[in-house]
Write a structure and sequence with these properties.
- About 80% of the residues lie in helices and about 0% in strands.
- The protein is built from 4 helices and no strands.
- The relative contact order is 0.11.
- The mean pLDDT is about 85.
């Protein structure tokens, strides 16, 4: 009995199956990378939007008319909590590479540093230029 046709068929089947497995694996990797990029982009956008909203809320409180310094401080804390910045920053820490997390933390800490501490609020809101 001649084994050549059988071995040729078996070799062709192994090569075909291997090629299919490699192609499927490469496709899966591309899809996973695309999905990871979409998730990161969504989280980055959420974080930047929350950071901007927190800054706008702090500005609104600073320009607003509050009866006392403690009321102003409470309004700032509540405004920042309402923006979802803390949740967004935790999501950023989970998926972002170290340099992105570091930049996000830096932006958040700069925003906090720009917010007056109790006792530092001006006695009257700043006037706007015409």
């Amino acid at each position: 009995m001649d084994w050549t046709p059988l071995l040729s068929t078996l070799t062709g089947a192994v090569i075909g199956i291997t090629a299919t497995l490699i192609a499927d694996r490469n496709r899966w990797r591309r899809e996973e990378a695309r999905h990871a990029l979409e998730v990161r982009r969504e989280i980055y956008t959420e974080y930047v939007s929350a950071l901007k909203a927190a800054g706008e809320e702090i500005r609104a409180v600073a320009l607003g008319d509050h009866m006392s310094e403690s009321a102003r401080d409470a309004a700032v804390r509540e405004a920042v909590r309402g923006t979802g910045i803390y949740t967004a920053s935790e999501r950023l820490w989970l998926v972002g590479p170290p340099q992105v997390v570091e930049a996000g933390n830096e932006a958040f800490h700069r925003l906090r540093a720009a917010t007056p501490m109790p006792g530092e609020w001006p006695s009257a809101p700043p006037t706007t230029r015409p």
